[in-house]
Amino acid sequence: MRRASVRDALRRAERSGRPGLPLGRFRLSRRPGDLLPVLVDEDGGLVLDPGVRIQGVAPSPDGRLVALEVSDDGSENGRVLVVDTSSLTSTEIAGLAVRHARMAWAGEDLHLVDTQERCLRVRRGEPPRTLFTTAAGERATPIGVGGQTVIARTDQERTRLTGTDGAGLLDLPRVRSISAAEDTVLAVTSEELVSLRMPELGTASCRLETLPGVPVHAQAVPGGGLVHLVGDGHSLVVRLRAEAGVLAPAQTVAISRDHDVRTVSGLSWAQGRAWVRTESPAGAPRVRPLEEPARSTSEGRRSRLITVTAEDGVEIELILTGDPGGATLLEVYGGFGIVDLPAFEPSVAAWCDLGGLHVTARLRGGGGAGTSWHTSGQGAGKTRTVADAVTVARELVRLGLTRPERLVLAGASLGGLVAVSAALAEPGLVAGVACTAAPLDPHRISEHPGARHWAAEFGDPSDPAVRAAMDDYSPFERASRFPGGRWPRFLLTTFAEDSRVSAAPTDRLAEELTARGAQVDRVHRPRMGHGGNHLDAVHDFAAAVLDFALDSAHESTGV
Question: How much is the pTM?
Fold first, then answer.
């Protein structure tokens, strides 16, 4: 297979685009041929293409105005545009710096929180007005509901719902996520789902433990809510109805099964209907009303679910896409309680078109099996996450699905740390490892811009147990102990506009590995960041990773 075929396969997969969920009368979609998502109307007609990444969208209740948060350089640092859909003109709100801001409308008043943690009211033609500045450790989230804006103010212990004037409305346990639809708010706490009816503030709830899986997404709908759950490795959507103080299941829609693994990548309420977006690693996303029956598609390869057993008897779920016999790309993460969802990725579709097998491993530290699954891979338990990745690599070989010389590990961000550490567990475990934008030196986490958000995940290095774990799984420590001879190949990539992860530890590890005799490709990519990026840049990056994986698997002319 010629190298040009990698790019050809990627372009075929990228042509599918990525449809957006309805947001009132609009959608944020990347249409076939678009390099970035654009704002379209319900018929797919272009409303606005700002030519830069759109990080957030908030239509006003009547749809005449749409607030957009845009980022110019992939750094996740944003500015705010207000689009008048009647004239198709946009106006930038001068002097505002935001980052993944939650925005909500009340009439023609836009409420948002800026990077200085100020909750602001914005009116066209007037300078932004500060309503309040959040307290240390507090997060404010404006929510548009019932024609007004409610502010959810969350600290380490609780969430207070207030009006924009600061008047208290209701106290809740600490909320993890919150959404609204018409006159209903749906809040997710660590223990329950709570539905609130505005303005009466009537509440109904259900315990998370009573649901048939781990909640991933939740969306308010009038009189109740939708929740996307992962149970026994599979996605399902449950519609809940509020009645007499109880949220009870009214409808269950199965999305996935063992030999056709798919996921829900989003839920919304618009046009008086519940909407769901479903996809699989090599199957392009589709958006449909929830009440329409799910249809398997012949487009793309189906994925399947299997389990392997760790040394302590715990079962680890794997999602396999493609056919055994070719080169194998094993993707790992395992952190922050994030569920490894089988979402569509053009590079996976391209890899499978080239004859490869792609595997996603749900390691401890992630969220695939609830809170205990996450906490077992936190802090001192992070060494267990790496051990799980090693187990998966060994089991793929034992099951005859691949051979060590055909197996390449891949991970991004925290997953890059896990991938490199696992690859250095023993000589000959894997042929190569592709690591992207990773905090590779756990002993020096504080050198990263995003480190203040990672304390609970990595633990306190002054704790002897955490320190001992870091001494075990640190790529620097493992490189110093590695016996050499059968080094895997390394592709170590960082991004110039990364606002979370510093490139410095990757530079240090590249020097260390090279000095010890490993083959290292060190790449620093311009105009790319930790979040979403321009499709051309993503295409070049994905092609480089696939090329590296092919070379590492000793197949320079094919998979």
Answer: 0.92
